[in-house]
User: Which sequence fits this backbone?
């Protein structure tokens, strides 16, 4: 059973928010004592996803949560936007696929960096991506 | 008549009987605990038991009055798990208290069998619950031991050795799974930074088998080492490993591989433009 | 801070990235650096990222771009001082920075550059 210990919502609407948001995530990872490699993996994944929000939807919000399950602690991030949505999610999860001018590593790369990854998208309504990284995961 | 309350008057008799039962147990581990200590431990638990249990709460172990008993019992159970007692020994410890109580009751109340029977049923039920709690915490204690050992194993099994200026060697022993790989990678890369070494030798002679997953982990480690600006040589490729690698179609062609640590070291010397020579006399 | 300082070392340029860059700053760096390569006829570019705790695919792309652009202007790019955690993350992300040389520190990066490009002898003396 997953218990939420702490949560905070951060609005994202300009590119300067990326660095601020990353620092905020870092503070949380330090708070639960996450090791430096897992910290870097989580923040990098978060950075990819928050850039996607800016690039495709223009703005959105991220919910940061400290969660606990049994003896494990972790961080869960929920990225939501009201952008155009993704018409073919499985295709977007493939390495090297991009509709924008990027390397196409964002979504599949972010998934490899975290323990749990979930994406829900409706065309015209928006996209919600949830990622979870355990302290020792 | 409250048979449980009546026990308080019989404390010393109970303790004596309980100790007798415990000491009579042929499997008693005198090597693990002194009799004195055992007695003190038993007294503590017995006192808590006598204080808490009454005819009213005997059927409800979740009652707050049981907290002290459960706390002491859990503590004993966990420490016994760590000391290496078997579950049977730990179980006997608790259940022999019931035998002692039953014996006291029998001596006192044998004239009222109906009351004795009812109380015995409740007592059994109570000890079933206490037994379950004992085993649960016992297993938890064991799990903690296992977790600690797992941590220790993963730490000691990945030493990074500085074999020469600029050359590190990392003998990998045992199976490479993804959490192991992560530790190996972290250790190796950190050492590369700390020592400023430009060549790392990964020796896999101690890895029992290389499947495509292990190969993938090795490839990742090599790629990360290169990203840092150091070169990585994999040595200790046994014939069986070479066979499986080719049969599985794993591409190691971008990696420098050597059969032995010695030839990897030779290669490293070459790359650093060093030469090992016999002293001319 | 609106600009990342670019230092000139003889035939080489040295950029030390000290802060996490937001996108505009990173793009500025890319164009400033290429301008500098052209203006100084530099043969090598050293990018020191030892203070960077995060390199995401955007930053990786900027580094790749700089290397690619420099290369067609006859300059080699070496990325130095990458943190172990960053290297592990980039591999997992799938970004191997192909075509970019890497070195452990500025000193090693410098000698790597010197071995990659053949400088006339007198020029080598001038660097000291």
Assistant:
């Amino acid at each position: 059973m997953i218990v939420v210990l702490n949560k905070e919502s951060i609005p994202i609407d300009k590119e300067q928010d990326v660095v601020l948001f990353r620092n905020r995530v870092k503070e949380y990872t330090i708070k639960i004592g996450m090791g430096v490699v897992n910290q870097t993996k989580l923040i990098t994944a978060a950075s990819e996803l928050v850039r996607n929000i800016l690039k495709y939807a223009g703005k959105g919000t991220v919910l940061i949560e400290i969660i606990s399950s049994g003896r494990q602690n972790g961080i869960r991030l929920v990225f939501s936007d009201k952008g155009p949505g993704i018409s073919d999610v499985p295709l977007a999860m493939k390495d090297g696929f991009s509709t924008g001018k990027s390397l196409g590593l964002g979504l599949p790369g972010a998934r490899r960096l975290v323990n749990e990854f979930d994406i829900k998208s409706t065309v015209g309504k928006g996209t919600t991506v949830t990622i979870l990284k355990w302290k020792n995961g | 008549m409250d048979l449980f309350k009546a026990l308080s008057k019989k404390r010393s008799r109970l303790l004596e009987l309980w100790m007798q039962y415990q000491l009579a147990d042929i499997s008693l581990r005198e090597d693990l605990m002194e009799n004195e200590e055992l007695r003190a431990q038993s007294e503590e638990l017995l006192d808590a038991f006598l204080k808490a249990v009454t005819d009213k709460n005997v059927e409800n172990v979740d009652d707050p009055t049981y907290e002290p008993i459960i706390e002491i019992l859990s503590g004993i159970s966990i420490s016994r798990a760590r000391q290496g007692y078997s579950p049977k020994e730990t179980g006997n410890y608790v259940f022999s208290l019931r035998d002692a109580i039953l014996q006291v009751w029998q001596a006192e109340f044998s004239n009222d069998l109906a009351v004795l029977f009812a109380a015995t049923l409740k007592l059994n039920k109570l000890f079933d619950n206490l037994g379950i709690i004992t085993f649960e915490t016992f297993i938890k204690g064991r799990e903690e031991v296992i977790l600690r050992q797992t941590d220790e194993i993963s730490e000691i099994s990945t030493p990074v050795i500085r074999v020469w200026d600029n050359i590190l060697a990392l003998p990998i022993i045992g199976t490479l799974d993804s959490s192991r790989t992560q530790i190996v990678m972290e250790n190796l890369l950190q050492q590369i930074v700390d020592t400023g070494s430009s060549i790392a030798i990964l020796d896999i002679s101690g890895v029992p088998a290389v499947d495509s997953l292990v190969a993938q982990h090795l490839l990742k480690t090599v790629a990360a080492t290169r990203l840092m600006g150091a070169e990585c040589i994999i040595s200790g490729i046994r014939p069986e490993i070479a066979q499986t690698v080719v049969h599985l179609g794993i591409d190691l062609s971008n990696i420098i591989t050597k059969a032995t640590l010695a030839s990897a070291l030779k290669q490293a010397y070459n790359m650093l433009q060093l030469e090992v020579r016999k002293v001319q006399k | 801070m609106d600009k990342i300082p670019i230092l000139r070392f003889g035939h080489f340029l040295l950029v030390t990235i000290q802060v996490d860059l937001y996108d505009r700053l990173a793009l500025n760096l890319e164009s400033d650096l290429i301008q500098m390569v052209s203006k100084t006829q530099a043969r090598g570019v050293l990018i020191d990222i030892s203070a960077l705790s995060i390199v995401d695919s955007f930053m990786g792309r900027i580094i790749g771009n700089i290397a690619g652009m420099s290369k067609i202007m006859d300059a080699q790019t070496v990325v130095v001082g990458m943190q172990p955690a960053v290297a592990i993350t980039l591999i997992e992300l799938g970004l191997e920075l192909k075509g970019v040389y890497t070195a452990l520190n500025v000193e090693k990066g410098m000698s790597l550059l010197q071995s990659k490009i053949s400088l006339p002898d007198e020029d080598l003396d001038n660097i000291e």
Summary: The longest strand of chain A covers residues 3-12. The first helix of chain A runs from residue 16 to 31.
